[in-house]
Design brief:
Blueprint: E1 3-7, H1 12-23, E2 30-34, E3 43-46, E4 49-52, E5 66-69, H2 73-85, E6 89-92, H3 108-111, E7 121-123, H4 127-142, E8 145-154, H5 161-171, H6 201-214, E9 220-226, E10 233-241, H7 247-255, E11 260-263, H8 269-272, E12 278-286, E13 289-299, H9 303-319
Bound molecules: NADP nicotinamide-adenine-dinucleotide phosphate.
The site of NADP nicotinamide-adenine-dinucleotide phosphate (NAP) has 31 residues, from helix 1, helix 2, helix 5 and helix 9.
């Protein structure tokens, strides 16, 4: 008998989690949808049944129940400890626990082997990190990576419902106002305000999370930007290896790796929308430098970048139960 719940069930990731759980027939006997007080009275549909949205109380959670977290990190810091005390198993999408040494940070195609089945809490990496980790893992098996450089073009849905609604408002001609940021017809080159050292938090997340997942360290030169795209993160990646690579080797490694779809056509974020695989596009070796590889990585940030990855983690945890 499996009880499952989505915390933040009315949000972009929470709704996608319910969709992915259904698509993949994750076995759920009892289901709970949690959100804030402002969603009281709202119903969500899961597996063909209506579920009234519930407010979290100290009695909400129970031993062995699977909880999929899709709230802000500030909220996760409040409800996750309560859930763990109750004996629940949590896969959390927020950044609250990603760098906690005792909490595994998992992209199943890359490092599912760190899971032992004894975990009560597993962290889902940031959306821009997940797609990059999926693409880099097979390359790291081929040769030693010296450094990587990545520039991201991230969809507004990556920042949740409020920003997606704000872009739609701006597309309809509304002005962002004096304090607001113009997203429509613009590229916003700092995702969140720059920190004291000039990096924005999105860049730091990439630089901190990637070595934890890949289990190797190398310099990561990251620049992240928000673009007026609804769904789908795009990344321009350059990887420098310590030895020459043959293009055939690269293509074989990437095309046989799980979770990757190879393209050579100049794919766009719209091509990735609704897709589980990460698209690796226009792979090219530098003509004068056979140690340097360039490619694009594109993925649906709400699926592989969030909900799908979380459900895949739960599927692994479930295997230890049977
Ligand atoms: N969007 C992405 O592509 C993406 C990718 C990777 C990771 N993430 C992370 O996933 C998390 C969720 O993101 P999102 O995009 O889904 O945000 P969102 O669309 O803004 O949804 C936030 C959810 O949190 C709920 N919530 C707010 N206060 C609550 C409370 N007191 N108790 C319970 N639930 C509460 C909201 O409920 P109400 O509707 O009732 O306010 C809503 O369901 C964030 O930590 C985000 O950084 C997002």
């Amino acid at each position: 008998m499996i009880t499952a719940g989505v915390v933040g069930a009315t949000g972009l990731v929470g709704r996608m989690m319910m969709q992915v759980l259904q698509e993949r027939s994750f076995p759920v006997d009892r289901f709970h949808a949690y959100a804030s007080r402002s969603s009281e009275g709202v119903e969500v549909v899961f597996n063909g049944h209506n579920h009234a949205v519930e407010i979290i109380t100290p009695e909400s959670f129970s031993k062995g129940m699977f909880l999929f977290g899709a709230t802000s990190s500030e909220l996760a810091e409040i409800w996750v400890p309560v859930a763990l005390d109750a004996g629940a198993i949590v896969v959390d999408n927020s950044s609250a626990y990603r760098m906690a040494p005792e909490v595994p940070l998992v992209v199943p195609e890359v490092n599912a082997d760190v899971l032992t089945g004894r975990e009560q809490l597993v962290a889902n990496p940031n959306c821009s990190t997940i797609q990059l980790a999926v693409a880099l893992a097979p390359l790291a098996e081929l040769a030693t990576i010296e450094w990587i450089s990545v520039a991201t073009y991230q969809a507004v849905s990556g920042a949740g419902t409020p920003l997606l609604e704000e872009l739609v408002r701006q597309e309809q001609g509304f002005d962002p106002g004096k304090e607001g940021i113009r997203y429509h017809r613009n590229v916003v080159t700092s995702i969140g305000p720059p920190e004291a050292d000039g990096y924005c938090m999105e860049e730091l997340k990439l630089m901190r999370e990637l070595p934890r997942i890949l289990g190797i360290r190398f310099p990561i030169y990251a620049s992240t930007a928000r673009v007026p795209v609804h769904t789908g993160h795009t990344e321009a990646v350059t990887v420098r290896f310590t030895s020459d690579l043959h293009p055939k080797q690269v293509l074989t490694a990437l095309s046989t790796a799980p979770g990757i779809r190879i393209s050579a056509s100049g794919a766009c974020p719209m091509d990735a929308e609704g897709m589980d695989d990460v698209i690796v596009d226009r792979i090219r070796t530098h003509p004068e430098d056979r140690r340097t590889l360039m490619f694009w990585v594109i993925s649906d940030n709400t699926r592989k970048g969030a909900a799908l990855n979380a459900v895949q983690i739960a599927e692994y945890l479930l295997r230890f139960r049977t």
